[in-house]
Design brief:
The structure holds two protein chains of two kinds.
Chain A: E1 4-5, H1 15-19, E2 25-27, E3 32-34, H2 43-47, E4 53-54, E5 72-76, E6 78-79, E7 82-83, H3 85-101, E8 105-111, H4 117-123, E9 128-133, H5 142-156, E10 160-164, H6 167-180, E11 184-188, E12 190-193, E13 199-205, E14 210-215, E15 222-226, E16 242-245, E17 258-264, E18 277-281, H7 291-300, E19 304-307, H8 309-313, E20 334-338, H9 344-347, E21 355-360, H10 367-370, E22 373-376, H11 379-393
Parallel strand pairs in A: 5-8, 5-10, 8-9, 9-16, 10-15, 11-15, 18-19, 18-20, 20-21, 21-22
Antiparallel strand pairs in A: 1-4, 2-3, 6-7, 12-13, 13-14
Helix pairs in contact in A: 5-6, 7-11
Chain B: E1 2-7, E2 9-11, E3 17-18, E4 25-26, E5 32-34, H1 36-52, E6 55-61, H2 67-74, E7 80-84, H3 94-108, E8 113-117, H4 128-136, E9 140-149, E10 154-161, E11 164-171, E12 174-178, H5 190-198, E13 203-204, E14 224-229, E15 238-240, H6 244-257
Parallel strand pairs in B: 1-6, 1-8, 6-7, 7-13, 8-12, 9-12
Antiparallel strand pairs in B: 2-5, 3-4, 9-10, 10-11
Helix pairs in contact in B: 2-5, 3-4
The chains are: A alpha/beta, B alpha/beta.
Chain lengths: 401, 263
């Protein structure tokens, strides 16, 4: 199967041939021809200004009863007695989708000793909260959590199911999708509703170089995960909503995996992906000990410390700090890259950050291409100065001027 | 013990870039590499082999040239390789891919452990591992940084989570997806390179896997791309100038205005 060219609309202009990443389009005098190299990636479709290229339609999931699926559902992530903030954000996004579709917004809360957390979800926008409060769910396992969520979906039949792209969501939500036999789109950055009422799921593709909008025409529910801090939570307010404890079978929440130990990290490294501020260092630090500088700045801003791959490989800092393709992906409000040249492998792990500050001696360093603010300076001089500036502004200065 | 490692051939990110003028993907000189996370998976499997003895098979789904990726890992010490390839598989989403890979694992018959990288760097979904385990109905653990095999045919795995680590016991057969911490990939050796060059790599298509055409590729997929477009560009970049203290002052003011928390 390959992309389809409407030869009546094609002007043989050749634009598609240029954009195809797989060299799967050959333009002759009569028009574009798609070769067997085509992977149906869709790059060409939007670039054709004549609307001559389309993709064949997906075939799976002919749900005859798609019409019976109604409502938007958000999986609310419970962690040690609290709801993760990504769930509040998803309720904000879910509220908009539910209003656009004219349907109910539900939240699903799984865990143990949930207390009055369902009320918190109502305050953030849920019309109804389905809970499963069982000791088997006190500690996360993919099988038990997926089992409970699958049972709720089978009972309540939502048309849309959203979850956070956290370490928990990215782990067990694929199992939910595969068990329900439906589509799942990871790490969406935008959600909307099409004219036909389908969920429009937009996410970065090709390592974040382009955006792709994806639909799930026939599988139900239409499932998507969203990273923390992408959507906006509603201000909690006094709202009407009901809470329903759902009875699930003991069989469905059985896990073949045995949890031996759960060790919370005592330092801030695990918070790297959640921090509002990330201060990252690379070779420009010159030696491992200079990470102390970045530590100090990060601490002042309530942030976390990141690192480039090369300094991790050299053992200057633990691999859990690595930002980039083979490390963690972060998207904080402020990302400061200090002494990092900006290889693509690093950039793909941080380009979603709101404000990117690059500090580098080399004005030609590629990091400046993605930076919002560029500082051409030696970080070993600049960072201490910047710390002083903040102190001064905070009135913490002790006559160092 | 038979270990299967899933690998994927991906474009080398070093060479993929967007033309700032035309906003299109520049494909020139884009080479293919083995997905970096999959090399950690290969290393994790080889370490189990070194310590306990195992046969390690690499499996990939892709076009005929994906054999290059298989030869790369054969050169690092993987015993066998299988390419799953068929025009019918084109356009597969993570579900259709998982159905196809699961069929290949079933065809092998005696698989005790499947090791995958935590995600492929071109798609970044991290879904194929968990979905394949679900299709195979075997337990799995994601984001694993350490694997210890016990005598009783189970694995003790350490997972990295957002809030720390979790240690799980997984009964075999099982599937794990691994992080960089699972092992820096070893380099190809001369002996294995020679073997890799000559290795016969079987190609399994839709018939060999006994799959129906409507279960694979785009026909077997639930999700579909309807639009691909260039992301909105970042606002123009600011360059702060002057002495170091002037730069610090300017940056502070800029960030304050941008509403950076805790400043």
């Amino acid at each position: 199967m390959k992309a389809i060219v409407d030869i009546d609309k094609c002007t043989a202009c050749g634009v598609c041939e240029e954009v195809c990443p797989y060299e799967a389009i050959v333009v002759t005098e009569t028009g574009a021809e798609i070769t067997d190299e085509c992977t149906l990636c869709g790059m060409c479709v939007d670039t054709c200004e004549f609307g001559a290229i389309s993709l064949p339609e997906v075939g799976a999931g002919a749900v005859e009863d798609a019409g019976q699926y109604r409502g938007v559902c958000v999986y609310a992530e419970w962690r040690d007695g609290a709801v993760h903030r990504v769930s509040h954000e998803l309720l904000g996004a879910g509220r908009e989708l539910a209003d656009a579709r004219g349907v109910e917004l539900a939240a699903v809360l799984l865990g143990h000793s949930l207390g009055d957390l369902p009320g918190e979800l109502v305050a953030h926008g849920a019309d109804v909260v389905y809970t499963v409060d069982r000791p088997e769910l006190a500690r996360f396992t993919d099988e038990a959590y997926a089992g409970a969520l699958v049972e709720i979906v089978r009972k309540k039949r939502p048309e849309i199911l959203l979850a956070g792209a956290t370490s928990m969501g990215r782990s067990f939500i694929p199992r939910v999708a595969a068990t329900l036999k439906t589509g799942l789109t990871a790490d969406c950055t935008r959600l909307g509703v099409s004219d036909e009422g389908l969920l429009l799921q937009t996410r970065p593709a090709f390592g974040g170089n382009v955006m792709a909008t994806i639909v799930c025409p026939r599988g139900r529910p239409q499932m998507a995960t969203v990273r923390p801090k992408v959507m906006k939570a509603l201000e909690p307010a006094r709202r009407e909503g009901r809470v329903e404890e759902v009875d699930v079978s003991a069989e469905s929440i059985r896990s073949r995996v045995e949890v031996l130990e759960v060790i919370p990290e005592e330092d801030r490294t695990a918070k790297l992906t959640e921090a509002d501020v990330v201060i990252s260092g690379g070779r420009g630090l010159q030696k491992a000990g200079n990470f102390a500088l970045l530590d100090e700045l990060a601490r002042m801003l309530g942030g976390a410390v990141g690192a480039s791959r090369s300094v991790v490989d050299d053992g200057w800092i633990d691999p859990s700090h690595q930002v980039g393709q083979t490390g963690r992906t972060v998207a904080p409000a402020l990302y400061m890259a200090a002494g990092i040249s900006g290889a693509v492998q690093h950039v793909v792990g941080m380009q979603g950050s709101k404000t990117i500050v690059a500090v580098n001696k080399d004005v030609n360093a590629p990091i400046f291409d993605v930076a919002t603010v560029g500082v051409v300076a030696d970080l070993l001089e600049f960072v201490p100065e910047f710390i002083k500036t903040i102190r001064r502004a905070r009135g913490e200065d002790r006559g160092e001027k | 013990m038979h270990i299967v490692v899933f690998i994927k051939q991906v474009p080398d990110a070093k060479n993929v870039r967007i033309d700032p003028e035309t906003h299109t993907l520049v494909r020139q000189g884009v080479e293919s590499i083995v997905n970096p996370f999959d090399l950690f998976a290969v290393e994790a499997a080889l370490r189990i082999k070194d310590e306990h003895g195992a046969a390690v098979t690499a499996l990939t789904m892709g076009p005929p040239q994906a054999k290059d990726a298989l030869r790369d890992v054969l050169a690092r010490g993987v015993d066998d390789a299988v390419l799953v390839s068929d025009r019918a598989f084109a356009g597969a989403d993570t579900w259709a891919t998982s159905v196809t890979l699961a069929a290949a694992v079933r065809k092998m018959g005696d698989v005790d452990l499947v090791v995958c990288g935590k995600q492929a760097v071109d798609g970044d979904t991290a879904q194929v591992g968990p979905e394949t385990a679900t299709v195979l109905d075997i337990p799995y653990a994601t984001f694993v940084k350490e694997i210890v095999k016990s005598e009783d045919s189970s694995l003790k795995v350490t997972r990295q989570t957002d809030e720390g680590t979790a240690v799980w016991r997984l009964p075999l057969p099982a599937l794990v997806t691994v992080l960089k911490e699972a092992g820096e990939p070893r380099l190809p050796s001369l002996r294995h390179k020679m073997r890799a060059k000559k290795a016969e790599i079987p190609v399994w298509g839709i018939e060999e896997l006994g799959l129906q055409a409507d279960r694979v590729g785009l026909s077997g997929s639930y999700t579909q791309v309807v639009r691909v477009f260039s992301p909105p560009r970042r606002e123009e970049r600011v360059l702060v100038e002057g002495s170091v203290s002037e730069q610090a002052e300017q940056l502070y003011r800029y960030l304050k205005e941008a509403g950076i928390p805790n400043l």
